[in-house]
Amino acid sequence: MMWLDPTDQRGLFGDQRDESITVTDRSERNVSGVRVLSIHPDIRMDFRNMPFADCSFPLVVFDPPHLVQAGARSWLASKYGRLGADWREDLRAGFAECFRVLRPEGVLIFKWSEVQVPVREVLALTDRKPLFGHPSGKRSGTHWITFMKGGVGDERGT
User: Fold this and answer.
1) Is the pLDDT of residue 2 over 80?
2) Digit-coded pLDDT (tens) for 33-76
3) What is the pLDDT of residue 133?
4) Domain CATH number, residue 52
5) Which residues pair with 110 in a beta bridge?
6) In this structure, are strands 34-39 and 43-44 parallel, antiparallel, or unpaired?
7) Distance spanning both ends of the chain, measured CA to CA
8) No. of H helices and E strands in the chain?
9) In-domain check, residue 87
10) How far is CA 71 from CA 6, 40, 75, 82, in A?
11) How far apart are CA 35 and CA 49, in angstroms?
12) What's the domain count of the chain?
């Protein structure tokens, strides 16, 4: 949802889904009452187990699902995905994978919407300390948080 140009070859978009979904959207700006969502990643993958070698990327953007509760045909769940019952372990594994595939001194941009889970609970799932962050959105509920991986010799390894 954040790509300015999805065809830009400098980035690689990964998602576990590859689909087009038609959902009900009764927002006042949508006259038809439906909306089509297309999710077509460059690579299908699971953020908990990425198919890349250690230290592959200088920059990773981690935008995991952030909903714990959502209806089966919910527009938000269709658009952003839904966390499972083991969401804490899933996000913990996701952070570990992001840092594993980052090069030394690489940058991780983490996006989180705290509509259901406070950002502090999610940040507690990694031992890495954020460098800086910024809340945005109508209610300042979406957080953009930047991490920087340690250099060569970082005691946590990859």
Assistant:
1) no
2) 777 878 878 889 999 999 999 999 999 999 998 888 877 767 77
3) 93
4) 3.40.50.150
5) 62, 145
6) unpaired
7) 28
8) 3, 8
9) yes
10) 28, 23, 9, 10
11) 31
12) 1
Two structure tokens written together for 79: 């658009």
Count CA atoms within 13 Å of residue 88 on its CB side: 5
Give the whole-angstrom CA distance, residue 98 versus residue 147.
11
Could you identify the residue written with the tokens 């935008």? 63
pLDDT tens digits for range 90-116:
999 999 999 999 999 999 999 999 889
Q: What pTM was estimated for this model as a whole?
A: 0.83
Which tokens is 54 given?
């250690």
In 4-152 the beta strands, taken as DSSP E runs, fall at 14-15, 19-24, 34-39, 43-44, 57-62, 102-113, 132-136, 142-148
Domain containing 99 equals 48-148
Distance CA 56, CA 98 (A): 10
